[in-house]
C-alpha cells in the first residue's frame, strides 16, 4: 500500500494507470485503512488487555497527538515547498494553485485556525484526518467490547449509516465534516464511513471475527466478482452507464460510490467494501495460514532474494506513518522533477523506482531512530 500510495500521488505519473484503483471499486486506501485496523489491534489491544480501559485509551490519545502533528507538519512542509517553487522559480504553472492552496496564502489567519481545528482540510491532506477520526473512536469501541461484542458491530454499522442515511431512506445527506469555509465541500474521507473497514481489520486481528473458511467455492466467487468488476475501474464505464440507462445508474450509484458522484470515496460505499474483502480473501488464501506460502524455504539465491524482499516490505509497513508522511511530501517533489522532463517511459520508471528506494531508506531510518541506539550499552 505504501508503494502504491507514493505512485498514486506523483502528479501526472504514467504508473497510476496500473494501480488497483484502475481495476475495480477499491484501491490502496482500503489496504491502508484495513491494515491500520489490524496494526491497531496489535498495538493498542494489548495495552487495553494489560493496563485497562483508561490507560489503553491514554495510549490511543497519545497516538492521535502524534498523527495530528504529523498532519500539521506535512501540510506546512508541502505548502512551503510549493511556495518556494513559485517564489524562486520561473515555471509555466503555479505549484501553489496545483494543490488548491491559494486560499491559504490569500487568507492565512482564517485558514490557520481551520487547519488546527480540522475545518480546513485541503484535498491532498485528507487521509491523516480520517485516520485521526477513526482512531478517536477506538476508546468507544473498546468500552462497548467490555459489555458485548455485538454492541461494537452495531455501533460501527450505525456510524456507517449516519454517513449514508439515504441507503435506508432517511434523507439525502449524512453526517460529514466541513473541509473549507468558502464552500460546501466535506472531508474527502469521512471517518464515520471508513471506520467500518478499520474495525473489520481490528476485529479480525483481535479475534472478535473468526478467520473465514479456506474454501475453493468462496475463492471462485471472490475471483469472479473481482474479474467482473474490473472494468468499473475506468471512469469511461461510468459515463457509458449514465448515458445508456440513467435509471439503472441512479439505482447502482449509492451502493457503488455512496454519493451522487461516480468513484467518490467519501462515505465508503458497500461495493468498495465487498471488493476489498474479496481481494483480501484471495490474498489470504494465496498466502496461506500465517503467510506460510510467502516464506521461501532453502538457501538458494532465489530464496534469499525473496526473503530480503519480504523483509523490506515488512519494514516499510512497520513504519507506515513515517513512510506515509515522507512519501506525500516526496511525491510532489518527484512530480516537479518530472515536469522538467518529457515524462517519457524510462524517466518515469526511474522517478518511481527512485521514490521507492527513498521510502525504503525512510523506513529503515525511522526504525533506527526508534531503536534509540544512543541508549544501548557498550
List the helices and strands and how they pair.
Elements lengths: L1 H8 L18 H16 L1 H44 L6 H4 L3 H5 L1 H10 L9 H10 L1 H8 L3 H15 L27 H16 L9 H14 L5 H10 L1 H12 L12 H18 L13 H18 L1 H20 L5 H26 L8
Helix pairs in contact: 1-16, 1-17, 2-10, 3-7, 3-8, 3-16, 7-10, 8-9, 9-10, 11-14, 12-13, 15-17, 16-17
Question: How would you briefly describe this protein structure?
Answer:
With 378 residues, this protein is mainly α. The protein has 17 helices and no strands.
Question: Can you offer a commentary on this structure?
Answer:
Helix 11 packs across helix 14 and helix 15 packs across helix 17. The two termini are 38 Å apart. The protein is built from 17 helices and no strands.
Q: Would you count the extended β strands for me?
A: 0
Instruction: Note the main sheet.
Output: none
Rounded average pLDDT = 91
What gross morphology would you assign?
A: globular
Count of helical regions: 17
- Rg (CA only): 22 Å
Strand content: under 5%
Strand pairing plus helix content: what structural class?
mainly alpha
- Poorly predicted regions: none
What portion of residues is helical? Answer: 55-70%
Give the N-terminus to C-terminus distance in angstroms. Answer: 38 Å
H/E topology pattern: HHHHHHHHHHHHHHHHH
Key traits:
378 residues, mainly alpha, 0% strand
Amino acid at each position: 500500500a505504501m508503494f502504491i500510495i507514493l505512485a498514486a500521488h506523483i502528479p501526472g505519473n504514467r504508473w497510476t494507470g496500473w494501480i488497483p484503483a484502475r481495476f475495480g471499486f477499491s484501491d490502496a486506501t482500503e489496504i491502508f485503512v484495513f491494515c491500520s485496523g489490524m496494526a491497531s489491534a496489535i498495538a493498542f489491544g494489548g495495552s487495553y488487555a494489560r493496563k485497562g480501559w483508561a490507560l489503553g485509551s491514554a495510549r490511543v490519545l497519545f497516538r492521535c497527538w502524534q498523527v495530528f502533528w504529523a498532519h500539521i507538519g506535512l501540510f506546512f512542509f508541502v505548502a512551503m515547498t510549493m511556495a518556494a517553487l513559485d517564489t524562486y522559480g520561473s515555471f509555466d504553472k503555479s505549484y501553489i494553485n496545483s494543490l488548491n492552496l491559494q486560499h491559504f496564502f490569500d487568507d492565512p489567519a482564517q485558514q490557520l485556525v481551520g487547519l488546527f481545528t480540522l475545518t480546513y482540510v485541503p484535498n491532498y491532506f485528507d487521509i491523516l484526518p480520517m485516520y485521526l477520526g477513526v482512531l478517536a473512536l477506538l476508546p468507544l469501541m473498546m468500552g462497548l467490547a467490555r459489555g458485548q461484542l455485538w454492541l461494537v458491530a452495531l455501533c460501527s454499522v450505525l456510524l456507517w449509516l449516519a454517513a449514508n442515511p439515504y441507503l435506508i431512506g432517511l434523507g439525502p445527506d449524512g453526517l460529514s465534516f466541513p473541509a473549507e469555509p468558502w464552500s460546501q465541500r466535506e472531508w474527502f474521507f469521512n471517518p464515520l464511513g471508513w471506520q467500518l473497514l478499520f474495525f473489520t481489520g481490528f476485529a479480525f486481528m483481535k479475534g472478535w471475527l473468526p478467520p473465514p473458511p479456506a474454501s475453493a467455492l468462496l475463492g471462485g466467487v471472490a475471483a469472479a466478482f473481482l474479474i467482473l468488476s474490473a472494468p468499473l475501474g475506468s471512469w469511461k464505464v461510468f459515463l457509458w452507464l449514465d448515458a445508456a440507462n440513467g435509471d439503472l445508474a441512479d439505482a447502482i450509484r449509492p451502493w457503488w460510490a455512496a454519493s451522487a458522484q461516480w468513484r467518490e470515496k467519501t462515505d465508503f460505499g458497500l461495493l468498495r467494501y465487498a471488493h476489498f474483502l474479496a481481494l483480501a480473501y484471495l490474498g489470504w488464501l494465496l498466502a496461506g495460514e500465517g503467510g506460510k506460502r510467502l516464506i521461501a524455504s532453502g538457501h538458494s539465491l532465489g530464496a534469499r532474494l525473496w526473503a530480503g524482499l519480504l523483509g523490506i516490505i515488512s519494514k516499510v509497513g512497520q513504519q507506515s506513518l513515517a513512510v506515509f508522511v515522507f512519501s506525500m511530501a516526496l511525491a510532489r517533489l518527484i512530480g516537479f522533477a518530472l515536469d522538467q522532463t518529457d515524462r517519457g517511459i524510462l524517466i518515469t520508471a526511474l522517478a518511481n523506482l527512485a521514490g521507492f528506494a527513498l521510502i525504503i531508506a525512510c523506513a529503515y531510518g525511522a526504525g533506527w531512530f526508534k531503536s534509540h541506539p544512543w541508549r544501548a550499552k557498550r
